[in-house]
Amino acid sequence: MTERRENAGERGSLLEARDLHVEFASRGRRARAVDGVNLAVGEGEIVALVGESGCGKTTLARTLLGLERPTSGSVLYGGAPLSYSSRALKAYRREVQLVLQDPTGSLNPRHTVYEAVAEGPRIHGMSDERDRVVSALARTGLRPPERFLHSYPHELSGGQRQRVVIAGALALDPRVLVADEPVASLDASVRGEILALLLRLRDELGLSALVVTHDLGLAWNIADRVAVMYLGRIVESGPVEQVLRSPTHPYTQALLSVLPESPSPVVLSGEPPDPTRIPGGCRFHPRCQVLAAGAAARAGVEGRCRSQPLAILPVSPFSADSHAACHYAGARLE
Predict the structure, then answer these.
(1) pTM of the entire structure?
(2) pLDDT tens-digit profile of 214-223?
(3) To which protein family does this belong (predicted)?
């Protein structure tokens, strides 16, 4: 496999969502699973997409992979809109690979490690199949790779199975990994090893990654930038240190408050988000602790919180700027 692409030094946007909307029919209504998202992943950049279950982050990831077609807006790869022809999608999925959260469910129990990692190269008709399998296993830390070629998933530890899944992606020499909760099913002792592996692959191969997670602690340890998603839209984004040390959106503050080191957890009120019933004004206002405490009223923005929609946040790769879709945060900066 090639060590790096020739254009790895070009620090532009590699994978991008532009004003992306994805809707589904649900109980006679339309569920706006992704409701206007701008998101960019640059060459060699790791972006964490964070939010609670049901916020739309997995649908967004599937749409970026070409597994869902947007209702409106576009997915761009290398600056060009994604084509949905079978031939174009096959080529695209060699470049942008998915890593799932459950290695046990991702691997066929009847297939050996060799067969699991070789599946991609076989689909794409690559003649150097064995070399790719051996190299991919070695890159993920399964050394010597020959020791694992004829093993079955049940003979491996959870961490080893996740490395096999990552090796299956690496065998195609991708430019982007989309990792959906990559360590959620692993023991705490193994999570750090897999995160360190993803960082090493970024440094050695110039890989980009979008890491989908509900865990802000994971985002802190691996990401360059973080995008916080609530009810189908990015509500705060920016450099990970800036956003997670000094969050300005009340939702981000609430997510951070449940980390073990937080002195005072925030308990959100109201019902969990329903993508078929997105409220007017700020979509977070029915559950917002700032609004409930009267701080928004004292800042003179309570009416705007309840009735005035917020603009879709801009985004660019490697941006040093942070943005928050929040009337209260905006008023404090004025």
Answers:
(1) 0.93
(2) 888 889 999 9
(3) Belongs to the ABC transporter superfamily.
